[in-house]
Amino acid sequence: MPPPSTTPALPRNGSASTAHSKHIKPSTDLFSSKRRPSESQPTGHDLKRPKTTPPPGQSATHKMSKVQGKRPVNADLIDLTKPRGASAFQPSQGAKKLVIKNLRTVSRTHELEQYYAKVWEDLDAALQSVFARQQPRKPLDTLYKGVESLCQHLRKKNIDNKTHNENKLYEFLRQRCENYLNVEVVKSIHGGAGANPVEVLKSVLKYWVIWCQQLASIRSIFSYLDRTFLLNSKDHPMINDMGIQLYRRMLFVSSKLGSTALTGIIDLVDRDRRGNPSFEASLLRESISMLHVLNIYGKSFEPRFLESSRNYFEEFAEIQSALSLKSYITACKRLLAAEDHRCIAYNFDSLTKRQLMDSAHSTLIEGYSEKLLDTGSVSKLLDENAVDSMQALYELLRLSSIQKKLRTPWEEYIRTAGAVIVNDTERGDEMVVRLLEFRRALDIMVRDAFNQNDDFTYGLREAFGHFINDRKILSSWKTGTSKVGEMIAKYIDMLLRGGLKTIPQSLLSDNKDRMVAEQSGLASTGDEDAELDRQLDQALELFRFIEGKDVFEAFYKQDLARRLLMNRSASADAERSMLTKLKSECGSSFTHNLEQMFKDKELARDEMTAYKSYQENTGNDKAPVDLNVDILSAAAWPTYGEVSLNLPANVAAQIEQFEKFYHSKHTGRRLTWKHNLAHCVVKAKFNKGSKELLVSAFQAVVLDLFNQIEGKGEEFLTFDQIAKASGLGDGDLRRTLQSLACGKSRVLSKLPKGKDVQTTDTFKVNKAFTDTRYRVKINQIQLKETKEENEATHQKVAVDRQFETQAAIVRIMKSRKTMTHANLVAEVINQTKSRGAVDTTEIKKNIEKLIEKDYLERDGNSYEYLA
Questions:
Q1: Which of 10, 318, 548, 853 is spaced 20 to 30 A from 535 at the CA atom?
Q2: Which one-letter DSSP state was computed for residue 742?
Q3: Domain boundaries for CATH 3.30.230.130 within the chain
Q4: CA dist., res. 539 & res. 491, Å (int)
Q5: pTM of the model
Q6: Pick the CATH number of 678-785 from 3.30.230.130, 1.10.3720.10, 3.40.720.10, 3.40.50.300
Q7: DSSP label at 22?
Q8: Contact criterion met (CB below 8 Å) for 812 and 821
Q9: Which residues pair with 695 in a beta bridge?
Q10: Residue 49: what pLDDT?
Q11: pLDDT band at 102 (very low <50, low <70, confident <90, very high)
């Protein structure tokens, strides 16, 4: 390129290499040979030289040249008129002649123009070498100095006009770069890549990498321009930014190559999503980085990428929705994880990731919410205890507005599955165990799948309480009261009688239960007592759901009585602990009678200690029967019916003796003997050895009858003979004989053989009876509740509930005097809910009964209390 028309300044370093001597006229009178007419010729002493002190290595003549004018540095000034040997301060008469050595003989401006023209040519050649990916012929430091000199020259030349002619150097560089990109890069990509977007992308990325390397070389050459003029320029970008802008404009704005390359990136993502083996991870990663540097990621790429992703999500959801809910959840979870990993691994923008995930949630979840929230499908997952799938479903819905809607199928499943358990009359004995297993599975689901979400915890409680107290469900038992309360009482009875060995394996604590218990500050589950205590707590969790706690109280009291009277409690500490739990849960009024039962047992032990002392003092301690009596207060203990029983003479004598002792201490009291709760130990001799049989009073009386006939040489007794001699009723006798002759421990033989006892059967002692244990328990039947006893208990609870309801009505009306029907019913339900749920129909019936008894009077839709 030809140099500009302006005259260049001197180079910064050095001067022209050649110069010629030339005689010039000095610029001051100091060296002039002419004199003004008015002046006299000075003497040698009058002539004063400029005082100069040259620095080391610099001559005085050199210093003068600086002072006197802008001569070339190498020019020497010589006085040719000075005579040899004469003093410099004694000039001779006549004109003096000065000669300057090495003085330039050519034009200085022309020389500098040649220099800068050469700089322009060198820079142009260097750029062509960079574009050709070759090393410039000139060293980089030479090129750098050339740019520096050129910038200084352009700036100095235009300083008066206050313009920046460095623009010319910048425009020179920009035009060269633009021509290169247009001619070399764009045309090369058009000619070699074809129509395949991915191939076009590869070419665009390839030349982008080359261009970045070329920009680095260009910056090193034009660094002075970059750091001085462009750094402070408001109108021009720096070289690196200029290169980025040119590449963006030439390939992505002015050309269709950029659009094709963006399509290639989207195609790469699609290949990755579909598992295409032709996917190139490094190509995608480097392409996304290129878009970020070119600053076209957000404006050009992101909208197209999100649109293509939305289309893919719709296609994916349509295909996967035909599968089961479990498969759909798994597929969605896998897709979302892959999208998240892709955004991180390939440097997608965080905003893109957020919008991408929002699009996926909108399409996959909100668009298919009916499938995800289908009660039948969710119930199937819960039935299968698919914690992972439910957790994935919960996580899918977590960021969506429909997450709370999952609570509806969750509660519906609990109500339905719970009702099936409670309604199963054939497996009534397993009800509580199944409910506890069900509750345990649901708790694990809330903990592991729903992350202890309060909404699902509350939903669990509400649904549990609904099916446990649903009167329509309970009607299948035809008891009129809570069957669940009865079964919970019986389950607790099983735990307190049998201890840890009676706990089903499915309910035992695992390591996670122990960890959660310790973190919650609960008792450790590492020992038997703590494990039993934990199982009792679980049973109480069910108990809390029951509205009809009066049913539980009635059956718990009966079972407690059997455990206390027959000494069948596995742990006295567990009994006391359970009583404390009930008191804390329901109040002291609920446990008042239960506490009295424990006190009666303690008083009975003291009473028997006094009786034993009495026997020793009266000499009756050698009696063949060792009698132990429990004195119970009738008000605290369950009501037991009268049972006729013909006791053996020796037992009757001991009972009579105890009555005398007791009445001697407590006058005015009457003892009523309850033989149906009595039990005893009988010694029996068999062919294989002696045994101790733990039997009920009924069983002992029957066995003693065979002792009586043995002395008469008889062996068999008929059913009628046993009934007449024992005095037992038909039902009690059948159960007693069945336990002795048809159970596991058959100490009697029955003819004919069979599981049922008939009135035509005959019985004899089974002398061949054997058992590995010395003491054999045969009185388990005594611990079992009969069907008649169960019905009687439910009926008693129903009657008591009617009396409590009527009492509540009277209390309310006595204080209010007048109330509407709706308000009265609501108040009665509120006051009686702690004892048991009362149906509004039952309340209305009790109101009618009180009207008949003249406690209330109806006035339209209101009631008035009659004093």
A1: 548
A2: S
A3: 678-785
A4: 8
A5: 0.69
A6: 3.30.230.130
A7: B
A8: no
A9: 680
A10: 40
A11: low
CATH number assigned to the domain covering 111-276: 1.20.1310.10
Q: Where in the chain is the domain with CATH 1.10.10.10?
A: 788-865
- Please state whether beta strands 77-79 and 98-100 pair in parallel, antiparallel, or not at all (unpaired): antiparallel
What residues have CB less than 8 Å from 93, skipping those under 6 apart? none
**What DSSP assignment string belongs to 790-839?**
HHHHHHHHHHHHHHHHHHHHHHHHHHHSEEEHHHHHHHHHHHHTTT----
H or E element that contains 232: none
Burial 347-356 (b: 16+ CB within 10 A, else e): ebbeebeebb
Residue 202 burial (CB count, 10 A)? 19
- Average pLDDT in the chain: 81
CA distance 577 to 573: 6
pLDDT(44) > 60: no
The number of beta carbons lying within 10 Å of the beta carbon of residue 647 is 19
Q: If you average pLDDT over residues 681-700, what whole number do you get?
A: 90
DSSP-assigned beta bridge partners for residue 819: 863
Beta bridge pairs of residue 679: 696
Q: Which tokens is 347 given?
A: 């440097």
Quote the CA–CA distance of 309 and 361 in Å, as a whole number: 12
Sequence-separated (6 or more) residues with CB below 8 Å from residue 206 = none
Beta-bridged to residue 683, according to DSSP, are: 692
User: What secondary structure letter does DSSP report for 53?
Assistant: -
Task: Render pLDDT for 73-85 as a digit per residue (tens, 0 to 9).
Answer: 444 444 444 455 5
Q: What is the identity of the amino acid at 612? A: K
- Residue appearing with tokens 């009988």: 682
Answer yes or no: CATH 1.10.10.10 is held by domain 788-865: yes
Q: Are 842 and 802 in contact (CB under 8 A)?
A: yes
